[in-house]
Amino acid sequence: MMTSKSTIFSLVLCSTFFMLSMGAQATSLAEIKQRGKLIVGVKKDVLLWGFQDNASGKIVGMEPDLAQSIANDLGVKLELVGVLTAERIDAVKHGQVDILIATLTDTLERQKELNLITPHYYSSGVNLLTRKTENFKEWTDLKNRRVCSRRGAFYNRQVTVTYGADVVALYSNDRSKQALRDGRCAALVYDDMSIAAMLRAPEWANDFVMPMTTIFTSPWSIAIAPTERGGELEKYLSKTIINWHRSGYLQQVEKSWAIPPSRFLNDKHKIWNKKVDNKWLCGDSISPSTPKECL
After folding, report:
1. Record's superkingdom (predicted)?
2. How far apart are CA 76 and CA 97, in angstroms?
3. 238: domain range?
4. pLDDT digits over 60-117, tens only?
Protein backbone atom coordinates (compact mmCIF):
# COMPACT_ATOMS: atom_id res chain seq x y z
CA MET A 1 0.00 0.00 0.00
CA MET A 2 1.32 3.46 -0.94
CA THR A 3 1.96 6.00 1.83
CA SER A 4 1.26 9.64 0.99
CA LYS A 5 3.83 12.35 1.61
CA SER A 6 1.43 14.08 4.01
CA THR A 7 1.14 10.88 6.07
CA ILE A 8 4.92 10.49 6.22
CA PHE A 9 5.30 14.14 7.22
CA SER A 10 2.71 13.71 9.99
CA LEU A 11 4.50 10.65 11.33
CA VAL A 12 7.86 12.43 11.32
CA LEU A 13 6.32 15.48 13.01
CA CYS A 14 4.68 13.37 15.74
CA SER A 15 7.94 11.50 16.27
CA THR A 16 9.82 14.79 16.59
CA PHE A 17 7.34 16.13 19.14
CA PHE A 18 7.62 12.87 21.10
CA MET A 19 11.41 13.04 21.16
CA LEU A 20 11.36 16.68 22.20
CA SER A 21 8.90 16.01 25.01
CA MET A 22 11.01 13.10 26.25
CA GLY A 23 14.14 15.27 26.13
CA ALA A 24 12.43 17.95 28.18
CA GLN A 25 11.90 15.43 30.96
CA ALA A 26 15.53 14.32 31.06
CA THR A 27 17.32 17.47 32.18
CA SER A 28 20.56 16.26 33.73
CA LEU A 29 22.85 18.08 36.13
CA ALA A 30 25.28 18.77 33.29
CA GLU A 31 22.51 20.19 31.11
CA ILE A 32 21.35 22.51 33.91
CA LYS A 33 24.88 23.86 34.30
CA GLN A 34 25.28 24.27 30.55
CA ARG A 35 21.96 26.07 30.31
CA GLY A 36 22.97 28.34 33.18
CA LYS A 37 19.53 28.19 34.76
CA LEU A 38 17.74 25.95 37.25
CA ILE A 39 13.95 25.70 36.93
CA VAL A 40 12.25 24.77 40.20
CA GLY A 41 8.58 24.16 40.88
CA VAL A 42 7.39 25.57 44.22
CA LYS A 43 4.01 26.15 45.80
CA LYS A 44 2.44 29.56 45.19
CA ASP A 45 -0.43 29.40 47.67
CA VAL A 46 1.02 28.05 50.95
CA LEU A 47 1.87 30.73 53.49
CA LEU A 48 5.52 30.68 54.60
CA TRP A 49 6.37 27.72 52.37
CA GLY A 50 5.71 29.12 48.92
CA PHE A 51 3.41 32.08 48.31
CA GLN A 52 3.17 35.23 46.24
CA ASP A 53 4.35 38.36 48.03
CA ASN A 54 1.81 41.14 47.56
CA ALA A 55 4.43 43.90 47.49
CA SER A 56 6.93 42.42 45.04
CA GLY A 57 4.73 39.93 43.21
CA LYS A 58 7.50 37.35 43.62
CA ILE A 59 7.06 33.85 45.01
CA VAL A 60 8.76 33.67 48.39
CA GLY A 61 8.97 31.28 51.32
CA MET A 62 11.10 28.54 52.81
CA GLU A 63 11.06 26.31 49.75
CA PRO A 64 11.96 29.10 47.29
CA ASP A 65 14.89 29.81 49.63
CA LEU A 66 15.96 26.17 49.37
CA ALA A 67 15.73 26.41 45.58
CA GLN A 68 17.89 29.54 45.62
CA SER A 69 20.47 27.77 47.76
CA ILE A 70 20.73 24.98 45.18
CA ALA A 71 21.03 27.45 42.30
CA ASN A 72 23.73 29.40 44.14
CA ASP A 73 25.69 26.22 44.80
CA LEU A 74 25.48 25.26 41.12
CA GLY A 75 26.43 28.76 40.02
CA VAL A 76 23.33 29.20 37.85
CA LYS A 77 20.32 31.50 37.76
CA LEU A 78 17.05 30.43 39.35
CA GLU A 79 13.64 30.41 37.70
CA LEU A 80 10.72 29.64 39.99
CA VAL A 81 7.52 28.14 38.62
CA GLY A 82 4.54 28.48 40.95
CA VAL A 83 2.38 25.35 41.08
CA LEU A 84 -0.78 24.28 42.87
CA THR A 85 -1.15 20.91 44.59
CA ALA A 86 -3.05 19.44 41.63
CA GLU A 87 -0.36 20.59 39.19
CA ARG A 88 2.81 19.45 40.95
CA ILE A 89 3.28 15.94 39.61
CA ASP A 90 2.48 16.84 35.99
CA ALA A 91 4.95 19.75 36.16
CA VAL A 92 7.74 17.22 36.73
CA LYS A 93 6.47 14.48 34.44
CA HIS A 94 5.95 16.89 31.53
CA GLY A 95 9.36 18.52 31.93
CA GLN A 96 8.07 21.96 32.95
CA VAL A 97 10.51 22.02 35.88
CA ASP A 98 13.90 20.45 36.58
CA ILE A 99 13.10 19.76 40.22
CA LEU A 100 10.09 20.12 42.49
CA ILE A 101 10.27 21.47 46.05
CA ALA A 102 6.59 21.88 46.85
CA THR A 103 5.42 20.31 50.14
CA LEU A 104 5.26 16.96 48.34
CA THR A 105 4.57 14.05 50.69
CA ASP A 106 6.41 10.81 49.95
CA THR A 107 3.83 8.09 49.15
CA LEU A 108 4.09 4.72 47.43
CA GLU A 109 1.90 5.96 44.58
CA ARG A 110 4.12 8.99 43.99
CA GLN A 111 7.25 6.85 44.12
CA LYS A 112 5.91 5.06 41.03
CA GLU A 113 5.36 8.33 39.15
CA LEU A 114 8.40 10.39 40.18
CA ASN A 115 11.95 10.04 41.41
CA LEU A 116 11.66 11.07 45.07
CA ILE A 117 14.95 12.11 46.64
CA THR A 118 16.13 10.81 50.01
CA PRO A 119 16.83 11.78 52.67
CA HIS A 120 13.58 13.66 53.18
CA TYR A 121 13.92 17.37 53.90
CA TYR A 122 10.82 17.97 56.02
CA SER A 123 7.74 16.29 57.46
CA SER A 124 4.20 17.19 58.41
CA GLY A 125 0.93 15.59 59.42
CA VAL A 126 -2.75 16.20 58.81
CA ASN A 127 -4.97 18.27 61.04
CA LEU A 128 -8.12 20.35 60.90
CA LEU A 129 -8.79 24.07 60.74
CA THR A 130 -12.30 24.85 61.89
CA ARG A 131 -14.38 27.51 63.60
CA LYS A 132 -14.27 27.36 67.39
CA THR A 133 -18.06 27.17 67.43
CA GLU A 134 -18.01 23.78 65.64
CA ASN A 135 -16.58 22.22 68.81
CA PHE A 136 -14.90 19.30 67.04
CA LYS A 137 -13.05 17.04 69.50
CA GLU A 138 -12.30 13.76 67.75
CA TRP A 139 -11.73 12.79 64.13
CA THR A 140 -14.82 10.59 64.32
CA ASP A 141 -16.85 13.80 64.76
CA LEU A 142 -16.35 14.40 61.04
CA LYS A 143 -18.71 11.59 60.02
CA ASN A 144 -21.12 12.86 57.34
CA ARG A 145 -19.78 16.43 57.74
CA ARG A 146 -18.67 18.43 54.73
CA VAL A 147 -14.93 19.08 54.92
CA CYS A 148 -12.94 21.08 52.39
CA SER A 149 -9.52 20.08 51.08
CA ARG A 150 -7.40 20.66 48.00
CA ARG A 151 -7.34 18.48 44.93
CA GLY A 152 -4.37 16.10 44.81
CA ALA A 153 -3.81 15.90 48.57
CA PHE A 154 -2.82 12.34 49.51
CA TYR A 155 -5.03 12.27 52.60
CA ASN A 156 -8.38 13.06 50.96
CA ARG A 157 -9.35 9.42 50.47
CA GLN A 158 -7.93 8.35 53.84
CA VAL A 159 -10.02 10.92 55.73
CA THR A 160 -13.11 9.90 53.75
CA VAL A 161 -12.70 6.15 54.26
CA THR A 162 -11.38 6.20 57.83
CA TYR A 163 -13.64 8.85 59.36
CA GLY A 164 -16.62 9.04 57.01
CA ALA A 165 -16.15 12.72 56.19
CA ASP A 166 -17.65 14.23 53.05
CA VAL A 167 -14.41 15.62 51.62
CA VAL A 168 -14.84 18.30 48.96
CA ALA A 169 -11.51 18.66 47.14
CA LEU A 170 -11.24 22.11 45.57
CA TYR A 171 -8.66 23.13 42.98
CA SER A 172 -6.42 25.27 45.18
CA ASN A 173 -5.64 26.17 48.77
CA ASP A 174 -7.09 29.64 48.25
CA ARG A 175 -10.44 28.24 47.12
CA SER A 176 -10.65 25.75 49.98
CA LYS A 177 -9.79 28.45 52.54
CA GLN A 178 -12.41 30.77 51.07
CA ALA A 179 -15.00 27.99 51.21
CA LEU A 180 -14.25 27.60 54.91
CA ARG A 181 -14.59 31.36 55.49
CA ASP A 182 -17.89 31.38 53.60
CA GLY A 183 -19.29 28.53 55.70
CA ARG A 184 -19.58 26.17 52.74
CA CYS A 185 -17.72 23.52 54.74
CA ALA A 186 -17.43 22.81 58.43
CA ALA A 187 -13.65 22.51 58.40
CA LEU A 188 -10.52 22.47 56.26
CA VAL A 189 -8.33 19.36 56.36
CA TYR A 190 -4.76 20.52 55.76
CA ASP A 191 -1.08 20.16 56.75
CA ASP A 192 -0.62 20.80 60.46
CA MET A 193 2.45 23.01 59.95
CA SER A 194 0.55 25.19 57.48
CA ILE A 195 -2.42 25.49 59.85
CA ALA A 196 -0.08 26.51 62.67
CA ALA A 197 1.33 29.25 60.43
CA MET A 198 -2.16 30.45 59.46
CA LEU A 199 -3.29 30.66 63.09
CA ARG A 200 -0.62 33.26 63.79
CA ALA A 201 -2.64 35.72 61.69
CA PRO A 202 -5.53 37.53 63.45
CA GLU A 203 -7.90 36.78 60.55
CA TRP A 204 -7.72 33.11 61.52
CA ALA A 205 -6.70 33.13 65.17
CA ASN A 206 -9.75 35.06 66.38
CA ASP A 207 -12.40 32.59 65.22
CA PHE A 208 -10.61 29.40 64.17
CA VAL A 209 -8.73 26.61 65.89
CA MET A 210 -6.74 23.41 65.17
CA PRO A 211 -8.48 21.03 67.59
CA MET A 212 -7.41 17.54 66.57
CA THR A 213 -4.44 15.30 67.25
CA THR A 214 -2.23 15.28 64.14
CA ILE A 215 -2.58 12.12 62.01
CA PHE A 216 -0.93 10.62 58.91
CA THR A 217 2.48 12.16 59.68
CA SER A 218 4.59 11.74 56.55
CA PRO A 219 7.93 13.02 55.20
CA TRP A 220 8.35 15.42 52.28
CA SER A 221 10.55 14.78 49.24
CA ILE A 222 12.22 16.81 46.56
CA ALA A 223 11.16 15.25 43.25
CA ILE A 224 12.72 14.94 39.81
CA ALA A 225 11.74 13.09 36.64
CA PRO A 226 11.88 9.26 36.83
CA THR A 227 14.23 9.32 33.83
CA GLU A 228 16.88 10.77 36.15
CA ARG A 229 16.78 7.82 38.57
CA GLY A 230 20.32 6.91 39.59
CA GLY A 231 21.76 9.88 37.71
CA GLU A 232 24.04 12.70 38.79
CA LEU A 233 21.16 15.07 39.56
CA GLU A 234 19.66 12.59 42.03
CA LYS A 235 23.04 12.04 43.70
CA TYR A 236 23.72 15.76 43.91
CA LEU A 237 20.35 16.59 45.46
CA SER A 238 20.66 13.73 47.96
CA LYS A 239 24.06 14.95 49.16
CA THR A 240 22.75 18.51 49.29
CA ILE A 241 19.95 17.49 51.65
CA ILE A 242 22.43 15.53 53.77
CA ASN A 243 24.53 18.68 54.09
CA TRP A 244 21.42 20.70 54.98
CA HIS A 245 20.59 18.31 57.81
CA ARG A 246 24.15 18.00 59.08
CA SER A 247 24.83 21.75 59.07
CA GLY A 248 21.47 22.78 60.53
CA TYR A 249 20.72 24.89 57.44
CA LEU A 250 17.12 23.71 57.23
CA GLN A 251 16.49 24.81 60.80
CA GLN A 252 18.01 28.20 60.02
CA VAL A 253 15.70 28.76 57.05
CA GLU A 254 12.73 27.49 59.07
CA LYS A 255 13.54 30.02 61.80
CA SER A 256 14.00 32.85 59.29
CA TRP A 257 10.38 32.35 58.20
CA ALA A 258 9.15 32.04 61.80
CA ILE A 259 7.84 28.54 61.09
CA PRO A 260 7.15 26.61 64.31
CA PRO A 261 10.22 24.44 65.09
CA SER A 262 9.98 20.99 63.57
CA ARG A 263 10.79 17.93 65.66
CA PHE A 264 11.59 16.16 62.39
CA LEU A 265 14.39 18.62 61.60
CA ASN A 266 15.72 18.46 65.13
CA ASP A 267 15.84 14.64 65.02
CA LYS A 268 17.47 14.57 61.57
CA HIS A 269 20.09 17.14 62.59
CA LYS A 270 21.06 14.95 65.54
CA ILE A 271 21.12 11.65 63.66
CA TRP A 272 23.17 13.00 60.74
CA ASN A 273 25.73 14.32 63.22
CA LYS A 274 25.92 11.09 65.22
CA LYS A 275 29.14 9.10 65.04
CA VAL A 276 29.94 5.47 65.88
CA ASP A 277 33.60 4.48 66.19
CA ASN A 278 34.50 7.93 64.87
CA LYS A 279 32.46 7.38 61.69
CA TRP A 280 29.16 8.96 60.65
CA LEU A 281 26.31 6.63 61.59
CA CYS A 282 24.36 7.67 58.48
CA GLY A 283 27.41 7.81 56.21
CA ASP A 284 28.04 10.44 53.52
CA SER A 285 25.49 9.25 50.97
CA ILE A 286 22.33 7.19 50.72
CA SER A 287 22.73 3.47 50.10
CA PRO A 288 20.78 0.26 50.83
CA SER A 289 22.63 0.06 54.15
CA THR A 290 21.62 3.56 55.31
CA PRO A 291 19.70 3.27 58.61
CA LYS A 292 15.98 4.04 58.23
CA GLU A 293 16.12 6.74 60.89
CA CYS A 294 18.50 8.70 58.65
CA LEU A 295 15.99 8.91 55.81
Report:
1. Bacteria
2. 15
3. 23-121+221-286
4. 999 999 999 999 999 999 999 999 999 999 999 999 999 999 999 999 999 999 999 9
